[in-house]
Design a protein that fits this description.
By secondary structure, the protein is of the alpha/beta class. It has two domains: 3-40 and 179-376, no CATH class; 49-173, abc type-2 transporter like domain (abc type-2 transporter like fold). The protein is built from 14 helices and five strands. It has a five-stranded mixed beta sheet with strand order 2-1-3-4-5, with helices on both faces. Helix 6 (127-156) links the parallel strand 4 (116-123) and strand 5. Helix 10 packs parallel to helix 14 (351-376). The chain is elongated, with a radius of gyration of 26 Å.
Length: 377
């Protein structure tokens, strides 16, 4: 590979970008517009929130309480853990949205006529799910307490049951005020990386074909691999600029925390870019005009936005759509970027998502590169 030829091709691509002011404005202004519009957007109610249980009492009364939460259809008990450390690890990794801790002695206080307390923990990184879960946790707890209170009154008399038998103590982690911008702005990063990168990549390659300059590049000493890298690298750099542009403005304007390592954010964003660039290249091998390339990209982009948890929480979707969401690379990246920015977790909590992104990136980019080289030949 000749780096001099590669640098010359990269320089040529940046000159074309600079000579097209409309594209330049599109690249810089649209991310800011998206951030402000989506940062103030509304939230949605959800059901079947994944709930993990730390039952330190193991009494019939504790099981009856869990049955009350199951029956309400707002929560789905996904796992039982043995320690608070295991509970935190599962919430940090996005394996559950909520957790309930039933302390030891809960059953004795309920049967003895005293007041028992439970702790309900919510993942506030998704305000849509957290706000619904917060209200549901409190309402279900109050309803269950009323049932116990009525039983006490019937058994002992009105004067024997003045104090509420159950108090639900709630904690909202990562986003205590349930600010929607904390959820939306990291999502904007994922949308920008997929939308702008795939659209601009597909349009740039098809534009060369429309103008007839792709044939001129083919007859030069430039090799197919150099041509691919030279065409893609400028848009990779632009995407990284957009990413940190949104992070900076989101932090300074909306107060969105950045608790994770910026280097790790950049590395995993680059891993996600493999899929986005591959989609753009693949669209360029299918389309003959820039309009066709745009439509082809949008055919993949719209399902990604709606099935990734960007607009609507995954828990609110029908089970069939939740299955399809597993085939969307953006789903995994949104979990990664929100966990890094809001929770400050490390690689060990995101191994499944990182592995999924790597598989998608290699497969999509590999298919796109093979088709692109075949088209050049």
């Amino acid at each position: 590979m000749s780096f001099s030829r590669l640098l010359a091709l990269i320089r040529k691509e940046f000159l074309q970008i600079r000579r097209d002011p409309r594209t330049l404005v599109l690249v810089i202004v649209i991310p800011i517009m998206q951030m402000f519009l989506l940062g103030y957007s509304a939230t949605n109610d959800v059901r079947n929130v994944a709930l993990i249980v730390l039952d330190q009492d193991r009494s019939p009364e504790a099981r009856a309480l869990l049955d009350a939460y199951r029956a309400a259809d707002y929560f789905r008990v996904s796992a039982e853990v043995e320690s608070e450390e295991e509970l935190r690890t599962m919430i940090d990794g996005g394996k559950a949205r909520a957790a309930v801790i039933i302390p030891a002695g809960y059953g004795e206080k309920i049967t003895g006529g005293g007041q028992a307390q439970i702790v309900f923990i919510l993942d506030g990184s998704d305000p849509s799910a957290a706000s619904t879960a917060l209200s549901a946790a409190q309402l279900i707890g109050q309803s269950y307490a009323t049932t116990i209170l009525a039983e006490r009154m019937a058994r002992r008399g009105v004067s024997a049951a003045v104090e509420a038998p159950l108090e639900v103590l709630t904690q909202v982690w990562y986003n205590p005020d349930l600010v929607s911008a904390y959820f939306m702005i990291p999502g904007v990063i994922g949308m920008i990386l997929q939308a702008l990168t795939s659209i601009l990549t597909a349009s740039a390659i098809v534009r060369e074909r429309e103008r007839g300059t792709i044939e001129q590049l083919i007859v030069t000493p430039i090799r197919p691999l150099e041509l691919i890298i030279g065409k893609l690298l400028p848009y990779v750099l632009i995407s990284f600029f957009n990413t940190f542009e949104v992070i900076a403005l989101g932090h300074w304007w909306f107060g969105v925390p950045v608790r994770g390592d910026l280097v790790l954010i950049a590395l995993l964003s680059g891993l996600f870019l493999l899929s986005s660039l591959g989609i753009g290249m693949l669209a360029s091998t299918i389309a003959n005009t820039q309009q066709e390339a745009m439509l082809t990209v949008w055919m993949t982009l719209l399902p990604s936005l709606f099935l990734s948890g960007f607009f609507f929480p995954l828990e609110a979707m029908p089970p069939v759509l939740q299955v399809f969401s597993y085939f969307t690379p953006l789903r995994y990246y949104l979990i990664i970027i929100r966990s890094l920015m809001l929770k400050g977790v490390g690689v060990e909590s995101l191994t499944q998502e990182i592995f999924a992104l790597a598989v998608f990136g290699v497969v999509i980019m590999g298919i796109a590169a093979l088709r692109f080289r075949k088209r050049l030949d």
